[in-house]
Specification:
The protein has strands at 11-13, 29-30, 42-46, 53-60, 65-73, 79-89, 98-102, 111-118, 126-134, 146-149, 159-161, 174-177, 184-192, 203-211, 218-228, 240-248, 254-260, 270-278. The protein contains no helices and 18 strands. It has 279 residues and is mainly β. It folds into 2 domains: 7-143, Jelly Rolls (Sandwich); 149-278, Jelly Rolls (Sandwich), CATH 2.60.120. Strands 1, 2, 4, 7 and 9 form a 5-stranded antiparallel sheet that branches. Strands 10, 11, 13, 16 and 18 form a 5-stranded antiparallel sheet that branches.
Length: 279
Amino acid sequence: MFQPSRPSDRIELCTTNATEGNTNTSLSCQASGTANVKGPWSDIGTANFTYEAIALSFTPKQANSWLVDLGINDGAGNVAVILQDLNVDLSVNSNAFLNIHLPLHIPRGSTISARCAYNGTSSTFGMSIQLWGMAAGIHGLPGYSRAVPLYSPSSSQGAAIDPGGTANTAGSWVELVSSCSDEIAAIFGSIGQNGDTVRGSTATAIMDLAIGAAGSEEMIFPSFFMGWGGTLDGPFPPPLLDPQACYIPKGTRIAARGTCSDNTAGDRTWSLCLMGLVR
């Protein structure tokens, strides 16, 4: 077995429901049985060294749009949330999965827990999660303390982005949050179906992110590209906005808008889960 020469090289598979070389998909956490209400916290693994980044792979038991939290369990029933309301929208295919790499700091010895919710009422459904811990952060930098939502979930989905009825023309700005509760050092996000799993035609779309008061938006991330068509009924696999350094002061309004080549109502929309990383 390979032994790294430096501690910074270390990577481990942390989750206890999976082992190297095994495709075990037993549930890491289960839904509550009430639509859009998160189920109980479930311990999924322990950090054997300090993580400065993690890689996550999510596979749901049912094709749907899910919200997932990660936290650190102190063993006394208290869980400190380090990743809140990450939208994992795999409503097109229950055999699909979402992979994401996040620069989050988790101290050595921490028990990591997860919980989830979806827009359904069966408590037998849930999410399989694999988590790898990494001693080195992205570009060798320390990890962030937590990730917070910069949007308001609706029916376990992201915020609806509608480009409007004119093809290839930017729609109105959609407010994601009127005043962010934390000082943000970086952003990342995921794109979902917005409930439309059967689209009529092939299309391409772009999305802009901005900060500032309504009518005075200042672009911070222009022209994020996506597309769909054929048997891919929506942005699929779910496009990801990888972590990007992007300072946003506390109390700032954040908005998004879209442009789409298809102006068909419903088919032209998608949902956005925008997340902020906090030092």
